[in-house]
Design brief:
Blueprint lengths: L13 E8 L5 E8 L3 E7 L5 E4 L4 E2 L5 E6 L10 E7 L5 E8 L3 E9 L2 E9 L5 E9 L3
Antiparallel strand pairs: 1-2, 2-3, 3-4, 5-6, 6-7, 7-8, 9-10, 10-11
Length: 140
């Protein structure tokens, strides 16, 4: 597998930055930069299977689920929300759940394989941001 930067001053410019191996996984993490905005790419070390995620991913304690949070406050090209992937029998992530949010996710932590602890903020009508904490229980 080869990822090649496209060096141009155009809308299709793409760059790749290898970030390393994700803990508790068989995946490499690559930051993908575009002319405007960016994503993260998970690449399976043995199969080369690739999955594009909104933001820095986090594996559940068992390594069978992945979560990423899109933060529009930090990246105007994103929509606030959460995405959860479940690894299939072959270890390939399948999108299991995605929700846009009226709040901006700022921190995620797995309490266990089915529970996410979320730190988020939401502005009031005057634009002041308030921090909220959520516990999200995912289906079995």
């Amino acid at each position: 597998m080869r990822l090649t930067d496209t060096s141009c001053d155009c809308d299709s410019a793409t760059s790749y930055l290898y970030l390393g191996t994700l803990p508790q996984s068989d995946y490499w993490l690559v930051e993908v930069g575009y002319y405007e905005g960016g994503d993260y790419l998970l690449v399976h070390q043995r199969t080369g299977h690739r999955v594009l995620v909104d933001d820095y991913p986090s594996f559940s304690p068992s390594g069978r689920r992945i979560v990423s949070a899109a933060n529009a406050y930090q990246d105007i090209y994103q929509t606030d929300g959460l995405s959860v992937w479940q690894l299939d029998a072959a270890g390939r992530p399948q999108l299991a759940w995605r929700r846009n949010a009226a709040w901006t996710p700022e921190g995620l932590h797995w309490a266990d394989d089915h529970t996410l602890l979320i730190k988020a903020s939401k502005p009031d009508d005057e634009g002041t941001r308030f921090t909220h904490y959520y516990r999200l229980r995912l289906p079995e």
